[in-house]
Amino acid sequence: MIRYSQCPACGAKVHFRASTTLLMVCEYCQSTLLRNDINLENLGKMAELLPDRSLLQIGSSGIYLGDGFTVIGRLQFQHESGLWNSWHLLFDHGKTGWLSEASGNYSLSFQVNEGLPDLPLERYVPDLSVPVNGQRMSVIRVETAKCIAGQGELSAAVPVGHTLHFVELAVAQTYASLEFDGAKPTLYMGQAVELTALHLQNLRDLEQSAIQISSRQLQCPACGGNLNFRLQQALTITCPHCATVLDSRNDKLAILLKQSNKLQPLNRLPIPLGSIGRFERATFTVIGYLRRSTRASGLLHYWEEYLLHHPGYGFRWLVCSQGHWNLLKPILKAPSISKGYTGDTIAMLEGKTYRHFANYKAKIDRVAGEFYWRIKVEDSASLEDYIAPPYLLNKELQGKEINWSQGEYLQPEQVNDAFEGKLLLTPPKGVFANQPCPYEPSVDAWLKNTLLFVVLVIVLQCWFVFESRQEVVFSKVMEVSAVDSSDWSNYRTLNPESANLESEPFEIHSNHGNVVIDIDGNLDNSWLFSSISLVNLQNGLTYSSSREISDYSGYDGGEYWRENDSHTDVVFSAVPPGRYQLQVEAESERSYGSVNARKTQYLRVIANVPLWQNFWFVLVFLLIGPALFYYFRHHFEQQRWAESDHPMNNT
Predict the structure, then answer these.
(1) Phi then psi dihedrals of residue 208, to 5 deg
(2) d(CA 566, CA 569)
(3) C-alpha neighbours within 13 Å on the C-beta side of residue 216
(4) 262: which DSSP letter?
């Protein structure tokens, strides 16, 4: 129910939407009104809000988790990194909450009266794990800010002019904030949200905001050149005329750094400041540029970062390193860090697993454009990368603040297309941390298709085995007699032992099946060579081959040894049915030492036999493709991890 009253300062009608409202800022005279049961008490004028590019305003509405809400008030805070707004929300069911907006990030939270951690403010440091309302959360930021203004309906006394201390914590999707205005903090819990997911209506007019922003014009104190601001809340701006870095927190600009020797390269950026690029279905403006460097193995490595801005989507970073591009989005979420089963450090966020890639320190050595924080050239930060190609998580620790960013790899063509093909980009060099492996889809596709073919081959082989009768159509023991001789000259050529065999006719009934001639010898320190022919008695069609078997043994240094190769077979494929005869000519060396020595071999003709050699050959052939792509993928991953803290080998 909306309750109406009258402002005691100007007489204007004011109305209260929330029953919990204690303070109201009159929208006509900016008087702060204290609400009681009888009337309104005027507490004096409220400080004016600083201009910003927020899309929200009093009266904006939306939906969160199926519950509608309306914006009924806000508090504005100022800190070293800029401004943030805390929008007071009234939900349809009567509860109230707060939508925090800072640097393009949004979090929606509600006051919680239990589960507060029992720690003093000075104990909170980044990465500290703290139990909050029954779960462990990591500290991501320790901030000091001043409440400078308020607007609309508020549920507590406005701490305008007060300096407050904030501790922000996060884990996965959960976000929490501790507000210290004394010894005991106030706890707010909720989650990071996307503005586009709140189905907002009645937003501020972007065109009117753009007109207001463009009106901010100042002169550089170093060269007198005009400065045109694209970002209303910019705290740092670089003069486009002399490259001087300026502190723009107020209209009296202060010089932070003179970098006149870098003016020429700043005027030749691959993506000029002010360029419009389309990402995530929105148009972003390039408002800032950084060049960072890090030292590894005694060498300096450089990369470039472009700051993009959109009034609704907030800020993005477009990062280029050796021709490789990533689009990074600052997030309020903090992944869950743990050890994987292989011992690697992993980060879990939104169901995705990221592997730790590298820790390094980086410093800023070149600046251009505008930034929403006071940039400190030459200051360094500790960075940490986790990868799940093509995605990346970046953790940046500077002072008492941890900033997480979530990125995705972009091909140079994608970046160029986003800027309507107006860029001249250099081709990428080497393999980047989260660059997607070009062989990954091929390996997966080959493995999938190979698996299908392997299953088909196994099914066919099983069918061949099931259908084959493996019928023995002929069998016989063939003997080669030994005759004693004292002629030692050229005995193998002039006096060979030999035997011939012509079998009785036999029938082969299989229709173009496989026929196997199985040979099993009984030899003693000798060999036996056989010429084999399978002759079709009806049309004279002949299949011929030859085989040698051997069996040798003895003693060497008192140890027994044996080389046995007395079993073999001959395979004739696609033999048509008919009446056949087996013809064998066997030959061996002369035997000495025993007149009764015999050499024998057991011959069998087996029709309709499945061939396993073809089966194994097909399997090996099918695996050639996946094996090649796996090799290329492995080589690609070696190149990727060679630049990390965890190289795959020591070379």
Answers:
(1) -65, -40
(2) 10
(3) 21
(4) G
The pLDDT confidence band at residue 397, using thresholds 50, 70 and 90, is very high
Name the band, by pLDDT with cuts 50, 70 and 90, for residue 445.
confident
Q: Provide the b/e sequence for 548-581 (b: ≥16 CB within 10 Å).
A: ebbbeeeeeeeeeeeeeebeeebbbeebebeebb
* φ, ψ dihedrals at 213, nearest 5°: -70, -40
Give residues with Cβ within 8 angstroms of 4, minimum separation 6.
13, 14, 15, 16
Q: Residue 490 has what pLDDT?
A: 44
Q: Residues, the chain, total?
A: 651
Helix axes 612-641, 440-467, angle to 10 degrees: 170
Q: 588, 595, 602: which is closest to 525 by C-alpha?
A: 588
Say if residues 290 and 304 touch (Cβ distance below 8 Å).
Answer: yes
* Alpha-carbon span 554 to 560, nearest angstrom: 6
pLDDT tens-digit profile of 456-474?
888 887 877 777 778 899 9
Lowest mean pLDDT of 7-21, 108-122, 183-197, 557-571, name the range: 7-21
Name the DSSP letter for residue 643.
T
User: With 80 as the cut, is the pLDDT of residue 211 above it?
Assistant: no
How many Å separate Cα 563 from the centre of its chain? 57
Residue 61 has pLDDT above 90, yes or no: yes
Q: How far apart are CA 375 and CA 273, in angstroms?
A: 17
Task: Report DSSP state, residue 123.
Answer: G
Average pLDDT over residues 172-200: 89
Task: For the beta carbon of residue 171, count every other beta carbon within 10 angstroms.
Answer: 21
Q: Identify which of 632, 584, 588, 589 has the alpha carbon closest to the alpha carbon of residue 604.
A: 584
Dihedral class, residue 607 (left if φ above 0, else alpha if ψ from -120 to 50, else beta): beta
pLDDT class for 37, splitting at 50, 70, 90? low
* Burial profile 336-346: b = 16 or more Cβ within 10 angstroms, e = fewer: ebeeeeeeebb
- CA distance linking residue 586 with residue 88, whole number of Å: 103
Give start and end residues of each alpha helix (H) in 389-515: 412-418, 440-467, 491-494
> What is the distance of C-alpha 597 from the center of its chain?
75
Contact, 58 vs 195, CB < 8 A? no
Query: Around Cβ 242, how many Cβ atoms within 10 Å?
Result: 15
> How far is Cα 195 from Cα 313, in angstroms, rounded to an integer?
7
Lowest mean pLDDT across 50-54, 127-131, 297-301: 50-54
CB atoms within 10 A of CB 620: 10
Q: Break the chain down into helix, strand, coil percent, rounded to 5.
A: 15, 50, 35
The pTM of this model reads 0.71
Please tell me what DSSP assigns to residue 60: -
Q: Which of 637, 624, 619 is nearest to 446 (CA)?
A: 624
The pLDDT tens digits of the residues spanning 582-597 come to: 999 999 887 655 544 6
Contact between 77 and 49 under an 8 Å Cβ cutoff? The reply is no
In 21-167, alpha helices (H): none
Q: How far apart are CA 496 and CA 501, in angstroms?
A: 17
Q: How many CB atoms lie within 10 A of CB 106?
A: 22
Burial of 197 (0-12, 13-18, 19+ CB in 10 A): exposed
Residue 436: asked if its preceding bond is cis (omega within 30°), the reply is no
Residue partners of 281: CB distance under 8 A and separation at least 6? none
Give the number of other CB atoms < 10 A from CB of residue 122. Answer: 8
Cβ neighbour number for residue 529 with a 10 Å cutoff? 16
139 and 128 Cβ atoms separated by less than 8 Å: yes
